Amino acid sequence: MEKLRERLLKTSVEIRYALRNERGQGMVEYALILFLISIGAVVLLTAIGFDVQEVFDEVEEALGTGDADPPEATGDNDAEPGDEFATP
């Protein structure tokens, strides 16, 4: 019974130390900041990405280079997943 009491006291001291110990807190804060910055960057780039694409399309049309809507591929040359070994 005495060994159980000693073990419980030792465990309670370890738990108190772990709760007071703030090692690693800075790393978690940096990770949260990095996460928020990356989410903001994705949202910002998504929002302005469409505008940039429209500008490039207008420049292409003005220069007469490129096609605004490229034709879709059709025919037997289309690769489908799993068709690598199919015979024509």
How would you classify the helix and strand content by structural class? Answer: mainly alpha
Q: State which percent range the strand residues make up.
A: under 5%
Q: Give the beta-strand count.
A: 0
Distance separating the two termini: 81 Å
Run of helices and strands: HH
- Oligomerization state: single chain
Radius of gyration: 31 Å
**Shape, per Cα inertia axes:** rod-shaped
pLDDT averaged over residues: 78
The major pleated sheet works out as: none
Low-confidence stretches: none
Put simply, the count of helices is 2
Instruction: Give the % helix.
Output: 55-70%
Describe the protein's topology.
Elements: H1 2-20, H2 25-63
Short structural summary:
The chain is built from 2 helices and no strands. It has 88 residues and is mainly alpha-helical.
